[in-house]
Amino acid sequence: MTAEGRVRLRAHLAGLDGVRGLAILMVLAIHFLGMRTPHSLGQRLVVKAAGFGMLGVDLFFVLSGFLITGVLLDSRGAPRPLRNFYAHRLLRILPLYYGVLVICLLLLPLVIRYPPSFEAVRTHQGWLWTFTSNFFIAATGAWASLSFLSHFWSLAIEEHYYLLWPLVVLSFQPRTLERICLGVMVGALILRTGLGMGGLTELSISVLTPCRIDALSTGGLLALWARRPAGLSSLVARSGRATLGLGAALLLLSIWCATTKLGLPVLHQIRNSGYALFFGALLLLSLGPRSHPLGRLFQTPVLGFFGKYSYGLYVYSGILTWVFLEKDLDGRLDALLGSHALGMTAHTALGVTLSTVLAVASYQLYEKHFLALKRYFRGPQGRPVGAHPLGSGASNAPPSLPVTPSREPPR
Predict the structure, then answer these.
(1) Which domain holds residue 227?
(2) Is there a domain that residue 390 lies in?
């Protein structure tokens, strides 16, 4: 791609902060509203709608694959691209990740007594320190095995991707990379289907890296196609029809699964692949001009704000979800306010507010000092390798929320 093409591509990425913002709002919805127990038809509909926030993981993974692959493609031929890329990713992810582990697993237990459900995390904390918590959760088949830090499993998948994918991108030409992405997408679907038919639970399947890599590869494939001559404009022009078509197909498939209960081990996995494709189309739709209603929507300050702090929002909201459950916040708010509807509203407002305060404070007082070190690892045109063109970082660690039938907070 020519330098002019790269500039033109980057100029169209403003909507991606909004995509990240939408993804984290979906996560907040499932964390603080989607797991509530409804007492009426209206509440049931609200909780059901919020439950779709679990799909925020698919949107985050597609976005991450798109940005990371694009950054790596743009760094080809630059000095020390691997060193710069890995340094940037480490500075973005590790300070907050390990800072939270130190506080939650080493410091807080010295001054407070954890409930039994939280103590289980300390027993198996080695999986968290080594970014292998997803494999432990898959083996146990239960979120409770790592309770309030179980949501870190998706960060493990991200780290696996960051470790291996740069080596692939810098080793093959774009057309070969396109075939690799397509092969991985098909392979992940086949693997998930085979494991499901073999009796492995959907929870376990949903946290295994090879089973989730297709969403990341979908984003990577779009980044490759976007760097073809006139690729981005052509993709964006078709994204509206693709979004509508895929959305309709997913709706029909979901209705079939819910009404017939036939072929679920296969159809659920096909639907999961469909979610990745749908969010890929939505991502492209966000790159449209501001004159387009959706292009304008994804560039709103509100979505941009939540996108900027999405990593911290993910980390802290996941912990708060378990704290609220352990303290029976639902019951206490219901008793205090005398209404379950008001209690649900207060629960959601309190969770979102506390998560936001913690995320903003964490970023301003702690994380941004590590991010400032990115200036020592410059890529093409003087940009830090791995940086989002808008300066907020390429994928602030996507959350992950698979389906779970219990009231246990999903991750």
Answers:
(1) 3-382
(2) no
Residues of the chain with pLDDT under 70: 1-12, 379-411
Residue 204 lies in a domain: yes
Tens-digit pLDDT profile for residues 50-104? 999 989 999 999 999 999 999 999 998 888 999 999 999 999 999 999 999 999 9
Calculate the average pLDDT of the chain: 88
> What whole-number distance in Å separates Cα of residue 81 and Cα of residue 71?
10
Rounded Cα distance, 357 and 375, in Å: 27
pTM of the model: 0.89
Burial class (CB in 10 A: 0-12, 13-18, 19+), 380: middle
Cα distance between residue 15 and residue 11, in whole Å? 10
Evaluate whether 92 touches 396 at the Cβ level (below 8 Å): yes
Distance CA 128, CA 49 (A): 31
Asked if the structure places residue 388 within a domain, the reply is no
Tell me how many domains the chain contains: 1
